[in-house]
Specification:
Blueprint: E1 2-4, E2 10-17, E3 23-30, E4 33-41, E5 48-52, E6 58-63, E7 69-75, E8 80-81
Antiparallel strand pairs: 1-2, 2-3, 3-4, 4-5, 5-6, 6-7, 7-8
Amino acid sequence: MRETTEAGERLSVENSFDQYGRATKTTYNYGGLPRIYSSTYKQNSDLVEWFRLPNYSKIQYTYDHLERISGMTVMSNSENFT
């Protein structure tokens, strides 16, 4: 999707998918400044293992035996939060 604001700034969203149709990367571009989000999935699963934010922080998810999120750890360049 690409649009332009009244001020002439370009807006766009671009999505990438893997061979299984799972979203792997989304790029939001506003005025030439890209914001990239990406996902990594557990092997042979639709469960997200890692989610990377535009500031290069990562979120790691853990799941219980029913595939419900049981924990989340946010890893930034300087600190980790659980």
